[in-house]
Amino acid sequence: MSVSEADGAGAPLSISQRGDTASFLGLSLKNSLLNIVTLSLYRFWGKTEIRRRIWSTTLINGEPLEYTGRGMELFLGFLFALLIVGLPFLLIVFGAQLLGPVLAALVTLPAYLGLLFLFGFGVFTAFRYLASRTSWRGVRWRLRGSPGDYGVTYLGYALLSAITLGWFWPAASRRLSGRLWGGLTFGDLHFAFDLDAARREKVYGAYALGWVIVAAAYVLFVAMMMSVMGAAVQAGDDGAPPVPDTGMFVTVYIAAIVFAVAAAVAFAPYTAAALRSVAAGVKVGDARFTLTVTWLEIVWLSLSNFALVLVSLGFLLPFVQIRTARFVVSRLRPSGNVDLDRVAQTPDTGPRTGEGLADAFGSSVI
C-alpha cells in the first residue's frame, strides 16, 4: 500500500511563511545593480537566490523547505529554449515575408499554433523543475506526466477558449491546474486533484462580470486611441501620416495603464474564486486545503504590486515576490492528516536544466 492510500494516519499539517520582507529590499537593490552591470545575465542567479530565501522561510510543520536549484541550470535552460524555439521562429517569420500573403499565412499560422503548444509545454516543465528542486526533510518533490501531453491539451483548450471568446477558459484553467497539482508527489506520497470538489467553488459568475466590464473598457480604449490618432491626422499636413509626439505617447501610455488597472479590478473576483477553487481540489493523504482570499484582497495585492514594480522600474520585484508568497501562505488552511514519517525518497532527480521555455515566455511562477 502506498503512502497516499493510508487513511486517517499521520498528523495535521501546518504551513507558514516567515520571510522578512524588509530584507528583500536589500536583495532587490543587489540584484538590480548586478543585472545592470551584467546586462541582465545575472538574473538567473538572482532568481535562484530569491527562491532559496523564500523556500527557506516557508515552513511545513515548523521545518523549512529547501531549494536546490542553481543559476547555471536556469541559464542553460534559457539558452536551450532560445536555440530550439526563438531562433527557428524568427527564421520562419522573416522568411515568410519573402513569400506571397497566402503562402506566408500558411507558413506562419502553424508557427503561432506551435508557440501555444510550447507555452503549455513550458508551463509543465517549469512546474516540474521547481518540484524537483524543492525538498523537505531531505525528500524531493517531483511531477508525474508528460510535458508533450500537457502542451497538446493547453493548445486545444486555448483554441476552444478563442472560439468561445474566452468563455471556456475558466473550465480549462481549472483542469490544467488539476493536471499539475494532481501529478505532484512528495517522495512516494502522491497528491491528487478532486475536480468535483474544485467545482463547488463557483467561478463563472465572477468571470462573466469581469468579461463584460473588460469588454466595455476595451471598446472605450479603442475609441480613445482612434480619437487621438484622428486628432493627430487633422493637425498634420494634408495626406501626410501622423507623426507621434510626446503628448500622444503620454496619452497612450496613461490609457494603457488605466485599462490594465480596470482589467485587474474587474477580474479580481474571478481570480480570487479561481484560486479558492484550485486549492479546494488539491488533496494529499487525508489532507485538504482551503484558501481564504477575497476579491478585495486580490485588488489590493495586484494594484500595490503593480505600483511597486512600475515606480521602481522593476527593481523591487524580489520584494513583490516575498510579499506575494506571504500573502498566499498566510491564507492557506490545511485540514486532515498526512503520515509524513512514512514517506520514502524516490530515485528520480528531475531535469538537468531549468525552465528555459517558461522563462523565455515570461511565465515562470517565481
Give a structural overview.
The chain is of the alpha+beta class and 366 residues long. The chain is built from 13 helices and 13 strands. It has helices at 23-37, 43-56, 71-96, 101-132, 147-163, 169-182, 195-199, 204-235, 246-266, 268-281, 295-311, 317-330, 356-361, and strands spanning 11-12, 15-17, 58-60, 63-64, 66-67, 134-136, 139-143, 184-186, 189-193, 282-284, 287-291, 332-335, 337-338. The strands form three sheets. The chain has an eight-stranded antiparallel sheet with strand order 5-6-7-8-9-10-11-12. A three-stranded antiparallel sheet has the order 2-3-4. The two termini are 35 Å apart. Residues 1-8 have low confidence and may be disordered.
What is this structure's SSE topology?
Blueprint: E1 11-12, E2 15-17, H1 23-37, H2 43-56, E3 58-60, E4 63-64, E5 66-67, H3 71-96, H4 101-132, E6 134-136, E7 139-143, H5 147-163, H6 169-182, E8 184-186, E9 189-193, H7 195-199, H8 204-235, H9 246-266, H10 268-281, E10 282-284, E11 287-291, H11 295-311, H12 317-330, E12 332-335, E13 337-338, H13 356-361
Antiparallel strand pairs: 1-13, 2-3, 3-4, 5-6, 6-7, 7-8, 8-9, 9-10, 10-11, 11-12
Query: How large is the radius of gyration?
Result: 23 Å
Question: Going across the major beta sheet, what is the strand order?
Answer: 5-6-7-8-9-10-11-12
As residue ranges, the low-confidence spans are: 1-8
Tally of strands: 13
The tally of helices reads 13
Order of helices and strands: EEHHEEEHHEEHHEEHHHHEEHHEEH
